[in-house]
Amino acid sequence: MAITVKDVAKKAGVATSTVSRVINDHPSISEATKKKVQKVMDELGYVPNITARNLGKRISSAIGVILPPLDSKERIGNPFYLEIMEAINEEARRYDLTTAIATAKNFDTLLENVQRMHLQKQVDGFILVYSDSEDPVIDYLYTNEIPFTLIGQPYRHENEIIYVDNDNQLLGKQATDFLIQNGHESILFVTNTTHESLYFERYFGYQKALMLAGLTVHPSVVIEQPEDYLAFDAILKKSQATALVVIDDIFALRTMQLAQMYGYRIPDTLSIISFNNSIFATLTHPYLTSIDIDISELGRVAMQKLYELIHDEISSGVRLVIPHQLVKRETVVPRL
């Protein structure tokens, strides 16, 4: 038979309303009474009904995690999103919170999903795990003053949004510097996206490293459409590139396959470095040299700051930078 609030109240010698206030940590209840009631709850094995408790508080005890439109196999299979969700979920459990996922194949449907979650009060706030120049969701959250934190760098309202990020410009610079240190002079930046914040930042870092070294800066090599794959070989030959900086690990593997199809040997005739240090970095040979962005810490801090925002412990306009680390493996060798 389930233990109820009435059972706890009877044994503790208090009113049921007092037990409810203890459960909700109401300031009108003395510490002595809280301890007495808590002791009885422990003895009886009473577990508060979170749903009922939250109805009294008018909160949901859930947060929404918003993924970008999963409109390609690369995005669906990208381990970044699974790792970030696990980190957020683990941190949410520390606050007795659950997580709900918002995702779709396009921005319009994604916005509808987020609006529904908000208007139906399914969640208390959101974590956006991407930053995209074409995204209507962040504008909706910002305009309606809905609590949210962002993983990535916002395009607007930087001084009013709480965001957690790596220094992606520094990542791009250090990745390129590492290739330069290994004697590479003709280096290309390869990407499958051109409207996400991390692309701009990493490409800026690539440009900066080459300019400081007095080397040629090439336009980014964008591979999105079938014709882009066909043109890749011609671009490599024209630039006489000996090394590539690729936007992330999963696309680096696709790039490696494409280069090998055109007769390049990794890393003998073409060195490659990428970002994220995901599980894919060691699932193929040669192992991928990559920059570890500490995905778990990104998720953990984003969740922590959202909790603080919901509970008015911090105001908006906070930027937190998560450190990164270069992991040297087999896809970068000195140019002979």
From TrEMBL:
InterPro entries: HTH_LacI (IPR000843), LacI/GalR-like_sensor (IPR046335), Lambda_DNA-bd_dom_sf (IPR010982), Peripla_BP_I (IPR028082)
CDD domains listed in its UniProt record: HTH_LacI, PBP1_MalR-like
Name of the protein in its database record: LacI family transcriptional regulator
GO molecular function, one term: transcription cis-regulatory region binding
Keyword Transcription attributed: yes
Transmembrane segments: none
Organism: Enterococcus hirae (strain ATCC 9790 / DSM 20160 / JCM 8729 / LMG 6399 / NBRC 3181 / NCIMB 6459 / NCDO 1258 / NCTC 12367 / WDCM 00089 / R)
Keywords: DNA-binding, Transcription, Transcription regulation
Domain HTH lacI-type, first and last residues per copy: 3-57
Entry-linked PROSITE patterns: HTH_LACI_2 (PS50932)
Top-level taxon of origin: Bacteria
